[in-house]
Write a structure and sequence with these properties.
By secondary structure, the chain is an alpha/beta fold. The chain contains 6 helices and 9 strands, in the order βαβαββαββαββαβα. The protein has one domain: Metal-dependent hydrolases (TIM Barrel, Alpha-Beta Barrel). The radius of gyration is 15 Å and the shape is globular. Bound molecules: zinc ion (ZN) (2 copies). One zinc ion binds next to loops.
Length: about 210
């Protein structure tokens, strides 16, 4: 079956996100997603805490390595930050997960090293990256050069951003099957950049919270 999964969502277990665990489920359903990967900055706490039968939850993490960000998908144990990219990839594999290079062209977002080639997939669509189409183009070229499967995710930090970009996976609704479908390349990225109206709302709400 064809599943729509947003592989890059930050919950309130990331310091810079306001999304509650309940909102992950309600907004994912609203957007017609079959599942999401919870990928908080350097922690799997939110991913482990989120239990639901309504959508599929893929546990994950976004690790701050010494050479940029790295997504660990299907990871339930914490992966230490501030290691080299290759060492982090090995740790993700040892934990039973796959390593996805997020936003490789977004120079202002701590992109993963382009001199490393042993990623399992490349996130070619990252809905929060600006300018979206240009960065998607360059990220696709990076994935093609390495011959790697292409995924998409929203990188959302505010609930209405969930599902702006996502991955279509040809797989049964089971986390291990989904991961092996990514490895096989039975995936493609779809969606769009986060609309300006939503970005503006998030900024205003963020400012209000600080006042
Ligand atoms: Zn990132
Ligand atoms: Zn992120």
């Amino acid at each position: 079956m064809r599943l729509k999964i947003d592989f890059h969502v930050h919950t309130c277990y990331s310091q810079d996100s306001s999304i509650s665990l309940k909102q992950v489920v309600s907004f994912a359903k609203k957007r017609g997603l079959d599942g999401v990967a919870v990928t908080d900055h350097n922690t799997v706490k939110g991913a482990l805490k989120l239990k639901t039968k309504e959508i599929l939850i893929v546990p994950g993490i976004e690790v701050s390595t010494l050479e940029g960000h790295l997504l660990g998908i299907n990871v339930t144990t914490p992966i230490p930050a501030k290691l080299s990219m290759e060492e982090t990839i090995h740790k993700i594999h040892d934990a039973g997960g796959i390593a996805v290079a997020p936003h490789p062209s977004a120079f202002y977002k701590s992109p993963p090293s382009r001199s490393v080639s042993c990623y399992d997939a490349v996130e070619v669509m990252n809905a929060s990256s600006v300018p979206f189409s240009v960065l998607t183009y360059f990220s696709r070229r990076f994935a093609e050069r390495l011959g790697l499967p292409q995924t998409g995710g929203s990188d959302s930090h505010y609930a209405p951003e969930i599902g702006s970009a996502y991955t279509v996976v040809e797989s049964d609704a089971d986390v291990d099957e989904i991961v092996s479908a990514i490895r096989k390349g039975a995936v493609f990225a779809a969606g769009r950049g986060i609309p300006w109206k939503t970005r503006l709302e998030r900024t205003i709400l963020g400012l209000k919270r600080r006042l």
